[in-house]
Amino acid sequence: MTEIRFHGRGGQGTVIAAIILAKAFFRVGHQVQTFPVFGVERRGAPVEAYLRLDNKKILARTNVYTPDHVVVQDRTLLQSIDVTKGLKPGGWILINAPESFTGMDAFAGFSVASVDANRIALNHKLGSRTHPIVNTTMIGAFASLLGMPPLDAIAQAIEEEIPISTELNIRAAEEAFREIRRPELTERSNG
Amino acid sequence: MDKKTEATQKVSLFIPRSYLTTEGNKTGSWRFLRPRYEEKTAPCSVSCPAAEDIGMIQMLTTQGSFKDAWETILRENPFPGVCGRVCFHPCEGVCNRAEFDEAVAIHVIERFLANTAHRNAFTPEVERLAPKKQNIAVIGAGPGGLSAAYFLALLGYKVDVFEGAGEPGGVLRWGIPSYRLPLAILKEEIRRIEEIGVRIQTGKPLVHRDLDTLGKEYNALFLACGHGRSMALGIPGEELEGVQDGLSFLRGIREGRMSKFSGRVAVIGGGNAAIDVARSIIRLGGKALIIYRRRRQDMPAFGEEIEMALDEGVELRELRAPVSIRKAGGNLALEVRSMKIVGTDTDGRAHIEPEEGKPEEIKISHLVAAIGERAEEPWYEPPDEGTGVLHLSHCVMAHKPGGTLVYGGDLTNGIKSVAHAVASGKEAALALDSFFTEGIESVQPRLAACRAGAGPALSMEIYTQGPRSDRSTHVVTYDEINADYFQFDPRVKQPRLLREERSRTFGEVSLKISANLAIRETERCFNCGLCNQCDNCYLFCPDLAVKKDSEALGRHIDYDYCKGCGICAVECPRNALILEEEDYEEGH
Amino acid sequence: MKKVIEGSQAVAEAVRLARVNIISAYPITPQTHIVERLSDFCSDGSLDARFLKVESEHSALAALIGAASSGVRTFTATSSQGLALMHELLHWTSGARLPIVMAEVNRALGPGWNIWTDQTDSLAQRDTGWIQLYCEDGQETLDTTIQAFLLAEMVNLPVMVVLDAFFLSHTYEPVDIPEQEAVDRFLPPFTPRFQLDTNNPCAFGSLVTPDSYMEMRHSIAEGMEAALDLLPEIEDRFAGIFDRRWAAIEPVECDDAEIILVTSGTVTSTCRELISDLRKRGEKVGLLKIKLFRPFPVEAIRRILAPAKKVAVIDRNFSFGASGIFAQEIRAALCNCPGHPPVFGFIAGLGGRDVTKDVLEGIYRQTDQSDRPEREDIWIGLKEVHDAAERS
Which residues is C106 bridged to in the sheet? Predict the structure, then answer.
């Protein structure tokens, strides 16, 4: 079983991101389970969502404590939240950050990748400069990172879940799929 | 059979279900108390000298039936525009709503209705009786004379009014300043009286012997010459230049003879005339100083008028009595003596005596004495006693073989107000009608039968049509109102000209209120004793015994099913229902 | 067709497929997604039903009592304080024998305010005459909701379909949404055995004297017993069409089990993993899932539990002054069985606290290592706290 934890803020579509990814995995034959950390949803508040993947029916109905991977939709969360909590060694941390971002060094021992999801989302007119909607972009990058699910499954899941600006969301996911930066991966494959 | 249905039919299903109707259960047989619709009398209508059906007027206003409401006033009072402005509204003093929060602003609504009628040029539809053969002369075209003429005309008589002045109106025309009563309002209300056939002849001052001549031409005379002369102060210097009386002062303004004034004027008196004088002086550009023997709270003038006068800059010197006036240079010097309170009079006002010591001297340019009025001629006064002299509540009727003479207006009224003048005119009209139709013996019983709630006020409507919707004469008290059905809501505030504007102009001080505000205010009215078809009785009756119909109240009680529980009477917000003990002797 | 949907949507899809006529509800977290979805269905035409907006849960059920009396299929959903507010009308519904179906999302009662899962809200209504069915996952929730209408209409009693807040109501997983045609075959249109009829007027719910009240209550009791018998028939019929089967109770690895854990709701699901792990290690442990709480399937439970050495009941609820409510019922079911096993009552996961596999294993170990329970209620994972009064 693979467990993935999403970090974001209320209003950024973090829960939707987990649902789209679940639906995309389900399309290509995985058993899935996804749910938000239940709380009082408020715009701007830190939120978490979980995704479980398996090849058999998922029975666990508990929170995720030791994720295999972590997706961080908003890098300002790094100041207040330990995104590595419970993260299994070798697990991926995917952070939404521009190329100039230097905070990666803090995550020694983990595999860190980043994507400038804000820029990509805004290029596709998703959200505003202060509130870019990066969830579909992050999914595209994450799929690239794991090598699954395939982009067409993601596109179909987006079509199912997002009725507005569907095409722009799909293209943003595709762009992120190509533009993800994963220096650590290169290093690890070498080693 | 479907498998589901088969299985289902096996399951026990014993439920409470009844096919009986309750029609057979005539719960009326349980009754030992019997509710009955009985409208009652509201305290406001009893206290109104003109016996206006105030509860009904408020209800009609709430319903937006402004013309009906206005006509309901006109049935009892030809002067809604005047009274909405100058009446001292005793109705508000007895309003049951005052025990809940604040009295309904009845006079504001009366004024609103008159304004609405004026703006929309309503033509009143007020019942008039068929013409009668008698003709009547009215002497004096003040509020009393005009009211008598109005009601006599409605009763079918031919009426001629004789007025000494150049225009009709009496005190309304010459005595009340236009900032309280604009001329246009008065003219319109007088025009409406003329429109129903009353002829007014102005510029016809009469002398005593003219009564004999008129007595031969007319079947009856009504004499309402009013109090046209101010009372004298009776102190030295009263004859000096710069000293005048209140009535001539006010008349001078209304005749247009006076448009500017300067200097400091002492106004002697504490009645409405004194306040009118003082406020007029302010408007003409002078300074006014009211000198009054007693205290502010003892002044007969309306409280609101005193308050506005002080607000406009009038000075008030309480507990001061004038002693003498003398010339001092180009001005006058008024000597006043301090008064002290030595007890309370029976009417609650301070009882006073002069203080020891030297009088105070006040420098003034003018002095106006407004300490009261009296009749101009002795023959205006009614006879005290004698054969054929009938003392009625607002009139004196002198019935002699040579002719019938009714004295009314200020000369026969204890309280000298416009509303009482209307009451006097109305009483004269009803008395004369009773006399002409049923003889002198019928006058007092017939008048007694048309009193609102057995009070002193006479109702034209009751006189001509019998009791208002079978209303009982019981006057509703606050305890009898179910106040649970009313919410606290402040009384409407009468909008007024700003103080700065008031002191420069004789324009009307009170401003119009909107229809919305008027309706909101009349919604506050309890409509004491009147059914406004709120349907509480219908909704609350546990036996569905209140049945709707096409009767006046739109409902009746089905006594086959009314078990006499009394919920209808308890839940009636306005006491339009009565609960009586069932009379077993006769009831079955 | 299988789709990834959340538990709330599973309920809504079932209500749509059941062709409900009248829905009335008042929103409350965590039930909101159910009624939002149904409101969408009503407005987009995918469900030809009237959605009555009301001002409270009390009114929501009152409205349905009127609707159901006229012989139509009805549904409501609520949670926690909302259910508590309905209490009076819960009695009304069963007394009037109205087959209303409700989705009840288990949420803790306040104060202290807590929107997370806890079974006390629904279990506190155990004496109101409602059939109660506790679900474990999205598929069971959908299927049970469809079955609930059939069951309710067969016995003329209301049915509460109960699901855990968030762990089920807000959790997305693959769920097979059946075709309308298949559901129509399973669930025929409602044929009421009585209804308001203006052509044949009568009064329902009128005064019942001592002379017949007992018989009326007994009739309800018989209806409840009938539900116990009819549920397997309904499951057979369902399995015949959809090839899925659920049960009033489900024993897992109980045949030779020395210790049997008793669970309900989503805890069952996690517990299945534990049983599977422990069995691999050779431990003789089983699991009994209780789905049907009212009527309580006493006989079936006895058959499974009586042979065990120990029984451990996990209650995500508590009856103050007594113990966990499932534990009480299990004890009562077993007490007339000679030589019945001791019943350990564990309180865990109140107010949404996570009941992880580790927590469940701890409960198993504690049961294994004790001969008898020291108390009737054993609270799991209690932290040391200081009274607010002391602190201030």
Answer: C164
Using a CB-CB distance cutoff of 8 angstroms, which residues of chain B are in contact with residue C233? 3, 7
Contact of C223 with chain B, judged by CB distance below 8 Å, is answered with yes
* Each residue's pLDDT tens digit, C290-312: 999 999 999 999 999 999 999 99
Domain that holds residue C360: 251-379
What span, in angstroms and rounded, lies between the C-alpha atoms of B159 and B220? 10
Instruction: Measure the CA–CA gap between C106 and C164, rounded to whole angstroms.
Output: 5
CB atoms within 10 A of CB B207: 8
What CATH code is carried by the domain that includes residue C266? 3.40.50.920
Burial of B21 (0-12, 13-18, 19+ CB in 10 A): exposed
Contact indicator for B525, B97 with CB cutoff of 8 Å: yes
Give the span between the Cα atoms of A76 and C195, in whole angstroms.
Answer: 62
CA dist., res. B105 & res. B494, Å (int):
9
Q: How many domains does one find in chain C?
A: 2
DSSP β-ladder status, C131-134 and B373-374 = unpaired
Q: Which of B450, B484, B502 is the last residue of a domain?
A: B450
Q: How confident is the model over B421-430, as pLDDT tens digits?
A: 999 999 999 9
Could you count the other beta carbons within 10 Å of the beta carbon of residue C110? 11
- B15 at the C interface (CB within 8 A)? yes
Q: Where among C203, C225, C242 does a domain terminate?
A: C242
Tokens at B387, concatenated: 């054969």
DSSP letter string, C125-154? TTTSS-EEEE--SHHHHHHHHHHHHHHHHH
Tokens of C381: 């994972």
Contacting residues of C for B11, CB less than 8 Å apart = 154-156, 222-223, 226, 230
Q: How many domains does chain B have?
A: 3
Comparing alpha-carbon positions, the chain A residue that sits nearest to C2 is A26
DSSP B402-421: TEEEEE-GGGT-SS--HHHH
Q: Which CATH superfamily is domain A2-190 in?
A: Pyruvate-ferredoxin oxidoreductase, PFOR, domain III (3.40.920.10)
Residues of C in contact with B14 (CB under 8 A): 212, 215-216, 218-219
The closest alpha carbon to C327, from C308, C339, C314, C336, belongs to C314
Structure tokens at C265: 């709701």
- What single string gives the DSSP state of each residue in B15-27? --EE---STT--G
Is B126 a member of any domain? no
Which residues from A are below 8 Å from C267, CB to CB?
61
Using CB atoms, which chains have 3+ pairs under 8 A with C?
A, B
Closest alpha carbon within chain B to C153: B8
The 10s digit of each residue's pLDDT in B200-250 is 999 988 888 898 899 999 999 999 998 888 888 999 999 999 999 999 999
H/E run at residue B34: strand B33-37
Same domain, C362 and C315: yes
Query: Residue A190: which pLDDT band, with cuts at 50, 70 and 90?
Result: very low
Structural domain contains residue C274: yes
Chains B and C touch, contact meaning at least 3 pairs of CB atoms under 8 angstroms apart? yes
The residue extents of the domains of chain A are 2-190
Range of the domain at B438: 135-228+375-450
Does C386 reside within a domain? Answer: no
Q: Please check whether residues C324 and C370 belong to one and the same domain.
A: yes
Contact of C117 with C107, CB cutoff 8 Å: yes
Closest CA to B279 of B187, B417, B373, B178: B178
* Residues B266, B366 within the same domain: yes
Residues 20-49, chain B: which have Cβ within 8 Å of C?
21
Parts of chain B with a pLDDT under 50 = 1, 587-588
What is the ipTM for the molecules in this complex?
A: 0.93
Half-sphere exposure in the Cβ direction for C114 (13 Å, CA): 19
The reported pTM is 0.72
